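We modelled the chain as a single entity of 305 amino acids. Its sequence is:
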Amino acid sequence: MSGFAGHVDVGDGHQIYAELTGPADAPAALFLHGGPGSGCQPAHRALFPKATRLLMFDQRGAGRSRPHGARHANTTAHLIRDIEALRARFAIDRWLVVGGSWGATLALAYALAHAERVSGIVLRAVFLGTRAELETAFLDTLPRFHPALFDDFLALLDAPERADPLGAYWTRILDPDPAIHRPAARAWAGTERILSRITPAAARLDRDALAAPGPLPATPFMEAHYFRAGCFLDAPLLDRASALRPVPGHIVQGRHDLLCPPATSHALAARWGAPVEVIEDAGHDMADGGTIAALRAAIAAMAAR
């Protein structure tokens, strides 16, 4: 099969949207989007050389996959099985695996489960799927770098909930009552968006707009589902990272990433042995500074091996 764009039934009532492009005899690559819950974009395809047999897909419940937002039978293990099902469907033996943020989490989990199918790994903004990382970002970094925004973030919660703000947010986001989940989802997404950018368009939440009618961001619901469950990881990825030493890799890391700081990438690199390329003028957003250029170069070099 030379190319494909459409839905693939992976069972459990899920149909995931997938796109396969590039020459059938070209080196194969897999791109894993972030979130969890966001989806693939045309800009992701532009990271790869044209002579790449590239598979991109929207994970269960995300992007164009159906049913949209579905969280049943939606765990890291399910996503790994979906990746293997797609690899087998399109007769790909081994591939380069690329992902950033949550996509890096899933890339590592997949590589640890199926190292024999991975020719190399390129990661950006490493997230290892732990509660500790989320607490650092939202309960340590947020009040230190954006204290007024942290006040906005906490203002949505009742006093007893502030003993565990993250757990309270995830419970609210997953509450079926729109009066509860609507403002929580918007506040979570707004806070995360500000933390992801070096120069955010706004540095505060618009509290009056949080409960207003209108469309809601999709990602907070999937993130709450995954984060509340420890990203459905059986064991810490960092503890197992030394098993990846035979797999070549490259890590691209923004110096000023407030969500996935350099310390995480360096901790992973120490176990794995992959180099970390720090982008001095970048935060978490892939569009920052020289991040895209660094990713393109790393992917091209890895694909040429």
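As a brief sanity check on the tokenised model: The radius of gyration is 19 Å. The first strand starts at residue 4 and ends at 11.
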